[in-house]
Amino acid sequence: MKKILHLSHTDIRYDSRILKEMGALEASGKFDLIGVGVKLEEGASSSKKHLKAKIVSLPLISKLLSFLPKPIRYGLNMVELTVLLVFYGIRSKPAVVHCHDTFALPAGVLIKMLMGSKLIYDAHELESDKNGQTPALSKATLKIEKWAWKRIDLLISVSDSINNWYVENLGPKPCLLILNSPEIVELKDGDVDKVKDNYFRNLYGIPLEKKIFIYIGILSDGRGIDLCLQAFASETESAHVVFMGYGPLTSKIESFAAKCPNIHLHNPVPHEQVVAMVKNADVGLCFVENVSLSDYYSLPNKLFEYAFSGLPVLASDFPEIDKIVRQYSLGFCSAVDLDSMKKMIANIIDSPVSIVSGDLSELGWGAQAARLNQAYDRLLQP
């Protein structure tokens, strides 16, 4: 079997997209997979997905040098990670190196040059223009991408707009769209109690007549969380909102929850449980703020998790999100400002809410897995 080496600057044990892609390739029976990432403890719930693939989480010594300026630390991180990843590349002699972020791209290029591997760049975002990134880091990221561009055999990204941006700004390249769709799996007996009907109502004492809105994902700036907190703080008697995840805004949500009986914080759960748990809510919140091109062109995981939970979504009116919501009748889109959001939330509270979606199979993980395997077959043709 041909060896495939997946490289990332994340901790692959917690990265649902990488695990799903590795699982899709493993299921084909054609490949021997290795995943090498960085050891991180960020508060995420580890996946219960079991792969035969070898997954390595590397501790980086340079990450302990917190006293150094961030640009210097960033450079040291990249040098250390590149050396370690190239070592794994030389040992494994992969047919394909699949890089999941720009940080791993220099190692991917070097492995390709040394071992003759094919190189895939899987941009999980528009990497040079994303939320929370300094201008200097954005410039450095773009320089790395431009340096590596001619050596990349296939670009994978999460939306057509992001793929198009890369082609327009860096040059023609074979592109593949792999949506951040959830992988629907059968729950084990020990998880069933967590996803029974009325789970959130029973957990938080929410009356049957009150609608439950839910937000799932990273709790950080740029995701409309501050606006949602303000909106629901004024709807104390009308509806409840559950935030399920982890991140820098956890303490802020806890503060609002202490004052507002209709605002709740739930711990993150394994990716495999998300869709089943979300079914216990009434409306999914998918607000993204226009703080970067990556956000403006995004198709967030949560949009598809809500869709496959059967929940109507209330989402940002950005091009890619709006296109999917309209095409598949997934719910409603709104401008991302407090007045617009409050008005839309109030309309949903006062009206029966349901969605009549068509066939969602094109959005499902099965379709994404099939496209990924087909792309690998084409890439590895003699």
Automatic annotation (TrEMBL):
Tagged with keyword Coiled coil: no
InterPro entries per the UniProt record, alphabetical: Glyco_trans_1, Glyco_trans_4-like_N, Glycosyltransferase_grp1
Domain Glycosyltransferase subfamily 4-like N-terminal: 90-174
Glycosyl transferase family domain mapped to chain residues: 204-350
EC number in record: 2.4.-.-
Molecular function GO labels: glycosyltransferase activity
Gene3D superfamilies in the record: Glycogen Phosphorylase B
Keywords: Glycosyltransferase, Transferase
The name this protein goes by in its record: Glycosyltransferase
Biological classification of the source: Bacteria, Pseudomonadati, Pseudomonadota, Betaproteobacteria, Burkholderiales
